[in-house]
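Subject: for your reference before the review

Hello V.,

The reviewers asked for a structural picture of the protein, and I figured it would be easier to keep everything in one thread rather than splitting it across files. Below is the amino acid sequence we used in the manuscript, unchanged from the supplementary table.
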Amino acid sequence: MERVRALAQRVYARLLESELSGVPSHVAVIQDGNRRYASKQGADPTDGHREGAQTTENVLEWCDELGVEELTLYAFSTENFERPPEEREALFDLIESKLTEFADADRVHDSEVCIRAIGETHQLPPRVRKAIDYAERRTAGYDRLHLNVALAYGGRAELLSATRDVARAVETGKLTPDDIDVCTVEDRLYEGPVRDVELIIRTGGAERTSNFLPWHANGNEAAAYFCTPYWPEFRKVDFLRSIRTYESREESWRRTRARRALALVRALGEAEVDEARRVLGKFGDALPRGEREDLPESDAEFESPAD
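And here is what came back from the structure prediction:
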């Protein structure tokens, strides 16, 4: 029975993959449910984290196969410091060993994976910081796939740190309030993410983003996919379903932008809608055929050539 189920999942995964028309450039994952998975198996929490580490390797492989350019994993939050000492130390041991293993793995170098840690890493034990430094140095020359590991990470802490840096720069005269823009803040965030998050995944059944990448994910209105499997149970079909959710949200977003622009063109006239026409030029093909046929004559060039 298990063999039949596994075969069916592989066939279904191939079907889902064949139906994809695009993938997000940056996926962020909240790996929830390791401890609950272990409890369900009658095992120690450490065993759940170890099983989850294998899923992490699988997801990295799937990202490489599909062409995802950046993956960020929520591995250890600032709240995790409150866990029992024995569980916390076991987690540190696992993180240290996996970072070292990844840094030396042929598949990481063959795929040109650049590994970076983001968060308040100075709070971590020296052995973990040493492993971070080793992994970052070993993969620093790569740029094909970026793997960000969030360690001692908290979104509010990241934004507070950036805000304090900006305030100090204003206080010392290096910045004026009028100088502050998006780039001013981004330059002071944790070094790591190269691009905004387009899809955020959370396993384990909870439907919240838990203070994870508020600037890069929430600020970009990233698509969110919540699923019930615990992280060690997360399969490729779940990953492909999450990308399908991203595609649906992206299509809806493009259609909404195009409709707003079309409404402006109709309501305001030629001289006042340059920006609206630019949006139609970029997203007009997201409108259903019937709505595109209603475009003003001067906007005919916005019709999709595929039609």
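For the response letter, the relevant points are probably these. The first helix runs from residue 2 to 19. The chain is about 50% helix and 10% strand.

Happy to draft the paragraph if you're swamped.

O.
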